[in-house]
Amino acid sequence: MSGLTVRQATHDVMRALGMTTIFGNPGSTELRFFKDAPDDFRYVLALQESSAVAMADGYAQATARAAFVNLHSAVGVGHALGSIFTAMRNRTPLVITAGQQNRALLPTEPFLFAEQATELPRPYVKWSSEPARAQDVPAAIARAYYTAMQRPYGPAFVSIPEDDWDGETEPLAPRQIVGEFVGDAAGLRAVAAALDASSRPALVVGPGVDRDGAWHVTVTLAERTGASVWVSPLSSRCGFPEDHPAFAGFLTPDRRKLRDQLAGHDVIVVLGAPVFTYHVPSDGPFLPDGATLFQLVDDPGAASYAPVGTAVLTSLGPGVAEIVKALMGSVRPVATGRAPRPAPVASDPMTGSFVMHTIDGVRPPTSIVVEEAPSHRNALHDHLLIRRPGGFYAAASGGLGYALPAAVGVALGSPGERVVCLLGDGSSLYSIQALWTAAQEALPVSVVIFDNRGYAALKAFAQTMGVDRPPGVDLPGIDFVELADGFGCAARRVEQADELEAALRWSFESAGPTLVAVAVDDAVGRLY
Fold first, then answer.
1. Is 72 a catalytic residue?
2. Is 279 known to be catalytic?
3. Is 509 one of the catalytic residues?
4. What is d(CA 410, CA 58) in angstroms, rounded to the nearest whole number?
5. Active site residue 501
6. Beta-strand relationship, 228-231 and 155-161
7. I want to staple 248 with a disulfide (CB 3.0 to 4.6 A). Which of 58, 228, 352, 426 is the partner?
8. Which domains does the chain have, with CATH numbers?
């Protein structure tokens, strides 16, 4: 052996792969990993393991490279599993490690050991391993990174017995795997030919467009073809400027309503999204009569379960670029998209639409929005427009507790940018402790809580389903200003509409994290 410890070799591998920021909440089975930690490494402490994963998720998406997470044995992985599921749905590359008990103790099932450690995070990781030998740990970390960064991106997991770090191993030379690929040339030419022949084309833009850096080439495709541009249902990223004339709006996760929205389009090209994501059941055809659908996606799974259309497996950036090249020379008039929404009227208590409209009017133009306010998603779509690449993040899983810690990760991965985190009051309580990390890191995160004193989205679903007086949907008596203050985060509460703009400007101009709790009405509106 070289005299190099497993710990040192792993640190060298992590440095070579750009993973010098570690998100975690350590326990006793992880402590040896941090012995003699390199000075160029940064540890970001989350106060709960699920938040650690969500922070890493936001950081990885903002930096477009895999982030490193360190969790505590079985219980820590269990705490984090919801965010691991979200990372899988987000297609976020993560290297997730967890401590395991000392190998000498494993035969007796000791305290804090993980039985079948590699199975616990499945099926929500792409690859899972507990190396058979201590000297194999650096190679397992490297493999997890290479796996996470292959398309479709996603988390990978390594369980590491705590005594392995002091073992000896050989140095490991980092490698490079180039994962971008261009789809079948004939398949891409067929998409271009269909768009050329179309009388009324539509593009459906999904999270893969922004994730793949294909925002600008997608704008070019829309302008060259005169296509209307829709956002895929429940998209977790924004891949097209929402103030562009071709922007038509957001598709509904309901088969019948979605079909009606696309009525009249003869060629539909779905970019970086499933066909389609639904949330409520309805029947009938998947597409309008006479429509032909093509899907460009880097996920073979999404291509395999699509019920209609022709799928072309490709990285989105080069795939869309090849379609643009293959188009005929003529440029069509840009399609006419949706009309601007009228400004909402001020009221006390305020509507979610009024709050979203006000935020959009005063937030910095380059600010990044991280959202988890389910009952106000329609208001966001109508009044808070995303105009830049990398300008919007949400949880693709539908689970709560993602946005606040993800905003911390996005801010860490986007130095100098203002991050605006929009939360429902119910959503915020799943991970409110992430305010502490934001304060400790002095991050420019503005948290806006839409306080309607309950789970309004559940109330809306209950109304739709005919469930009278459902239990557990009211949240009275929570003081978000006191909570924020306890975590070291400055905060204000706004009750009156004429106080909102000043409070938001204070938040957006503050150097560190702030929270603005806004009293909004408890009206139960439509979700879709």
1. yes
2. yes
3. no
4. 5
5. no
6. unpaired
7. 228
8. 4-169 (3.40.50.970), 185-326 (3.40.50.1220), 352-519 (3.40.50.970)
